[in-house]
């Protein structure tokens, strides 16, 4: 409810004390849960996440199979969490990260408790100056290594001759000769719109039957005063999780009473807002493929801001001096994101590892794919790892 506020500390020992006040005995069970989650994380990072997922033979190793059995990959996250905790508040807290994996906790393998370990034990980190600082650093490093980055150079088609990419045809009319192409744009867009039908990895039916992770309705706000009763990261569970999850995964629709996340980075980083002001980012996970209109965005802005003001006990809307919304149509226009998704494919068991879209084109010998729709999956770190996987393949197969 609106008066039920839980301050979740970053320190594990402090978090255990909070758990104990909610559910006596849960601090010991949290240790047990995190011990299993640590095992999943370490095995996942060491043995699974860097595999290209091209063949089942990659996993044909007795020690790896033994480790995967111990990881209990066929049990759901929902059941796994309930093996340790009974209080709904703790269960919601532990299940919330799963919401972005693309399915309900009932349909996500308990393997992904590794996310809880990363979040709780390894911690959540923030680059001072904002996430764009990571991009700037990557650009600087790439250019230092001799990479030439072309901006505003949209590809219209990938021209293939004798099962080999020869050129990229740009919207501008320019042709770029290519020895090897690594497509990191939306996989569906590349597969269905840039490659000719005879060289596509998948057909429309394949893509239509994929289970997608959520899209998002985002609001970027500039506030001309300092806010109270908020932290850098804020999760609003003042409405039940079940109906919202149902609106994302089971019966796709705009949710009636959505849960949402509020980030106020200016609390931590004074460089992202002028003195005496706040930088606020609001995220509502929603189903992909919904009809996205300005009217709908405004409706949800009013809903969320009313709840935000009620829970934090302060007037905010009258202090908004900058506002920008971002949703399905923006993901489509800016990234060609399939159905306006924001997080790629759902991490269900049948869309994990070898069951994801392949990093290599099946018939074109110099066309590869990386990004959130292939292995290992969505999120910034997995996308970077995806690039590393393809880089190793290029080195092995093209001597680059």
Automatic annotation (TrEMBL):
Keyword entries, A-Z: Carotenoid biosynthesis, Oxidoreductase
Domain of life: Eukaryota
One Gene Ontology MF term: oxidoreductase activity
Pathway: Carotenoid biosynthesis
Biological process annotations from GO: carotenoid biosynthetic process
Keyword RNA-binding included in the entry's annotation: no
Domain Amine oxidase, residue spans: 77-392
Transmembrane segments annotated in the record for this chain: none
NCBIfam families associated with the record: crtI_fam (TIGR02734)
Record-given protein name: Amine oxidase domain-containing protein
Native source species: Clastoptera arizonana
């Amino acid at each position: 409810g609106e008066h039920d506020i839980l301050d979740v500390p970053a320190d594990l020992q402090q978090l255990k004390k909070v758990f104990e006040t909610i559910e006596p005995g849960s601090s010991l069970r949290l240790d047990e849960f995190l011990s299993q989650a640590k095992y999943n994380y370490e095995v996942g990072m060491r043995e699974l996440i860097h595999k290209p997922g091209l063949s089942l033979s990659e996993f044909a190793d007795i020690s790896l199979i033994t480790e995967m059995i111990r990881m209990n990959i066929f049990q759901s996250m929902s059941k796994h969490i309930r093996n340790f905790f009974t209080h709904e508040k703790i269960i919601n807290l532990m299940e919330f990260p799963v919401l972005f994996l693309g399915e309900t906790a009932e349909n996500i393998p308990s393997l992904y408790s590794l996310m809880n370990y990363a979040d709780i034990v390894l911690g959540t980190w923030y680059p001072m100056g904002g996430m764009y600082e990571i991009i700037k650093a990557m650009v600087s490093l790439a250019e230092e290594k001799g990479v030439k980055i072309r901006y505003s150079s949209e590809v219209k088609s990938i021209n293939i001759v004798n099962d080999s990419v020869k050129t990229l045809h740009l919207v501008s009319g320019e042709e770029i000769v290519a020895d090897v192409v690594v497509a990191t744009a939306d996989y569906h867009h590349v597969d269905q719109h840039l490659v000719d039908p005879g060289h596509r990895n998948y057909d429309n039916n394949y893509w239509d039957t994929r289970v997608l992770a959520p899209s998002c309705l985002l609001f970027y706000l500039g506030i001309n005063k300092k806010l109270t009763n908020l932290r850098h990261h804020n999760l609003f569970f003042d409405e039940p999780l079940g109906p919202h999850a149902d609106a994302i995964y089971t019966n796709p629709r705009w949710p009636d009473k959505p849960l949402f996340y509020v980030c106020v980075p200016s609390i931590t980083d004074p460089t992202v807002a002028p003195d005496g002001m706040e930088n606020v980012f609001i995220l509502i996970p929603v189903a992909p493929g919904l009809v996205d209109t300005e009217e709908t965005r405004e409706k949800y802005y009013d809903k969320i801001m009313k709840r935000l003001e009620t829970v934090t006990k302060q007037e905010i809307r009258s202090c908004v001096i900058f506002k920008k919304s971002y949703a399905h149509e923006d993901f489509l226009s800016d990234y060609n994101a399939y159905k306006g998704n924001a997080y790629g494919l759902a991490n269900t068991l049948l869309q994990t590892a070898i069951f994801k879209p392949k990093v290599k084109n099946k018939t074109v010998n110099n066309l590869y794919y990386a990004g959130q729709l292939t292995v290992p999956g969505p999120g910034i770190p997995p996308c970077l790892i995806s690039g590393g996987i393809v880089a190793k393949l290029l080195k092995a197969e093209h001597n680059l």
